[in-house]
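Incident review: delayed structure delivery

Summary: a single-chain prediction request sat in the queue longer than the usual turnaround. Root cause was a stuck worker, restarted by the on-call engineer. No data loss occurred. The affected request and its eventual output are reproduced below so the record is complete for anyone auditing the incident later.

Affected input:
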Amino acid sequence: MSLNCNEINVVLSELNLEGSFIQDVVQPGYDTVALYTYGKDGARTILICTSQNSCRIHETRRKIVKNDKPLRFMECLKARIKGARIDSCRQIGLQRIVQIELSHGAERFVLYVRLWSNAANVILCDENNVVVDSLYRRPAKGEVTDGLFTVPEEKPSENRVWQVRTFDDVQAEYSSRFPEGGTLSFNQKIDIWYGEHAETLSREALLVQAEKWYSSSKARMESALERLLKKQNDFSQAEQLRHQGDLILSNIHLISPKAKFLECNDYETGRTVRILLNPEKSANENAAIYYENYKKAVSGSESLLHDIELSKKQLEKLEAQYAEIRNEKNPVRIEQLLRRNSTPK
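Output delivered after worker restart:
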């Protein structure tokens, strides 16, 4: 479950980030960014997570594991806002969009953190809201370099009351483990709770992603197989093409110049048949066309058999891969399987 609007406000009020400086930026994964800050309350590590069902921003005391290779968005943030001062940090209305205004020498930036489970993103803009870069690049929304980020209007609060969770179980279990003891801050409770439930929440989100990958892949493969089978059916008429060429040659005497068709008796069936002709070509040339199409059909039919068998095996492999993902309990392993089976964007 992602943080609701009132929980975000509690988190931000405890963080009190105004006047702090961003000392470093680390991106441990494709959906998470950590800002290392230092201010009047000392050093803080601010975790921003955009994972579905786990969208949140809060202080963390957990070690942030660096990715094996530097990721694009992290490199951009390091180049632009490392060393920047946080001039303000607030939520826009109750819309779960955190606006962090930054100054870095003469430059001004705004970091927007949108914590929507179905469309979360982290977007760095200049002072005119022109996008410098974003965690997820979404051209349709203008969330790409040089796009214009539209800041939503601050709407009045809805009638629905969003409750701030108390996490009493976390308080009871963990308060004695912290050196300062006593009541845990909301940020501490959030950090602990999501740390304990991350695997369950991540697995659910990854399975939704896996289902989309499976459905789109299966539809694409089945469509390709259907096209191959249709072509195979067309090629199954190959013998008829050769026979029509034979009929043309054996009935040349019936073909008048510029004739558009030949009507003759089929010596195999005893029936009268009509064969289309190219009026611009001779009888021998028309027969040659039918023989050539016959050869192409026979050759194509042989290669089609291989393609059809390959397509069927790919569908079987897809079913096995999806079953493996659904049966996997470890979300890290699920992510690895998805990464292996899909092209990163």
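Verification: The helical segments are 5-15, 72-81, 168-174, 186-235, 238-250, 283-327, 331-341.
Action items: add queue-age alerting; document worker restart procedure.
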